[in-house]
Amino acid sequence: MSDIDILSSYDSVSSTSSSNVTQQYSASSIENLLKQKDDFKQFIVIKNDQKNVSSLAWSTFGFPAKRAEDGSYQRIIGFASCCNCKDTYSFQSGGSGSTKHLLRHICSKKSLLSSENNQEGLIDKFIKSKKSTSLKLTAQDRTTIRDEFTKWICSSIRPFNIISDPELKTTLKTIIDICQKYHRLIDIEDILVAPTTISYNVNRLADHYRSLARPILIEPAEAGVLTICPDLWTDSLKKLII
Fold first, then answer.
1. What is d(CA 102, CA 84) in angstroms, rounded to the nearest whole number?
2. pTM of the model
3. Which of 41, 56, 111, 216 has its CA 20 to 30 A from that of 15?
């Protein structure tokens, strides 16, 4: 027999042997072997150590492997197993295999949900830390602002409780938030508006809010169940409802 015939015969036997090793396993048999509890750990799940792994399935899945005589583990080709529950699926690697069925596995879903919750938790912590690190005014600056409010109220003969008006607080907060975007001094004239501008803006805002209220009121009006209550307020001095 020539050397070529010997090599050809050897390759044929080697190929047949490798095929038999692969064929002797099935997804269910591998799953049972992985779930067996023994001190020798003949079968385990090894991580996918390939570079540039993009699928999130590999955070939960790996490859089943059998322990060799030298103590190392050899991967069982053609399968992927869950690292947690050992459920095993057929999987063809080398770029031809899809991980969609692995992502549908219950452990993968739990892992993805946990990852999303952790990310949300980090974002919440970041936002809270930003809020908690807001700057506090010094006592001197607070006194200066208080004096300016006092002079404004007294010189314009405004009621003292105007300072507790919630809309004043909202307006000041909006101004501060806008000014922070520019990271530089803002001309005060760009912030304040003229009385005539306010007068004209009343009509514009009224039209805007009417357009928002219209679709809300149409349905109950057509159904004949719309009730309109006039604005009521109380006079705390005269104890009357006006």
1. 13
2. 0.38
3. 41
